[in-house]
Design a protein that fits this description.
With 263 residues, this protein is of the alpha/beta class. The chain has eight helices and eight strands, in the order αββαββββαβαβαααα. Helix 1 packs across helix 2, helix 1 runs parallel beside helix 3 and helix 6 runs antiparallel to helix 7. The longest helix is centred in the N-terminal third of the chain and has 21 residues. 29% of the residues are buried.
């Protein structure tokens, strides 16, 4: 589905740490978690859904993964990233950021080890600029283009202690503002999938009955606008067909997995 087996990268801090790891500047800590006798990469908890047999196997899988990511960073022309969340769970001692809270998909929650953070506008903007500079260093100064979007999917839960509605608006407002600021660069563009889905003219009809999942027909509408704007991409019909089939076949997003298993 992607150019590497990232799992879900919800926050810019996760993205920055991935680049730092690929560049050999940083090593994640406390990232091997257990569940039912199996071991998982906590930075990609759903990539191997059955788990692995040993911590050494997890480390080897990650070593191969990071080598592929580094190769990708060196050779890409266009980097597409969706800004998804501001809230994150962090290993207190090392600052390692995880895509899901410990104890949801895998692992166990320990408040002495893990803490909650909610990144603000300056932090996210700074993290993305550091990411861009680091990729420039990895590439030996060769420029690359970035296409940003903002996820229109509302939060399913929040650890902020506030109601989910203002928490969602707060998060999406910050992410959209960061995307707007970054897209003032000639090398960074923004595609308004967030606005297309949440447009008041649609009367919330973009979402399924759970008011979170974006309908397949809405995805088709958004991608129709995308291909109309970016005419160099010629395989519109097969892309939309593939996206529709994939959305019906299985669940790949960690957030959706959590929701499915909780029922």
């Amino acid at each position: 589905m992607y150019s590497a087996r990232y799992g879900n990268i919800y926050t810019v801090r996760q993205l920055l740490q991935l680049a730092q790891e690929a560049a050999g500047e940083w090593t994640p800590q406390n990232f091997i978690w257990r569940k039912h006798g199996k071991f998982y990469d906590a930075l990609r908890p759903a990539v191997e859904p059955e788990g692995l047999d040993s911590p050494e196997e997890v480390r080897e899988h990650r070593r191969v993964h990071i080598s592929r990511v580094n190769e990708l960073f060196e050779n890409l022309d266009l980097f597409i990233f969706t800004l998804g969340l501001t809230e994150m769970w962090v290993h207190k001692e090392s600052g390692t950021v995880f895509p899901t809270a410990p104890g949801t998909l895998v692992g166990e929650f320990d408040e002495t080890l893990f803490g909650y953070e909610n990144a603000d506008y300056p932090q996210i903007l700074r993290d993305f600029k550091r990411f861009y500079k680091l990729l420039m260093d990895i590439r030996g100064g060769r420029r690359f283009k970035v296409l940003l979007t903002v996820s229109p999917v509302p939060l399913t839960a929040t650890a902020s202690g506030k109601h989910i509605l203002p928490s969602t608006v707060y998060s999406k407002s910050i992410l959209r503002s960061v995307a707007g600021k970054l897209s003032s660069s000639k090398w960074i563009d923004y595609f308004p999938s967030f606005e297309l889905v949440t447009n008041p003219r649609l009367h919330s009809s973009s979402f399924s009955d759970n008011l979170r999942t974006v309908r397949n027909e809405t995805v088709e509408m958004v991608m129709g606008h995308f291909f109309a704007e970016h005419s160099m991409v010629n395989d519109k019909k097969s892309f939309i067909k593939s996206a529709r089939q994939d959305s019906k076949a299985s669940i790949h997003c960690e957030e959706e997995l959590i929701s499915a298993f909780s029922q």
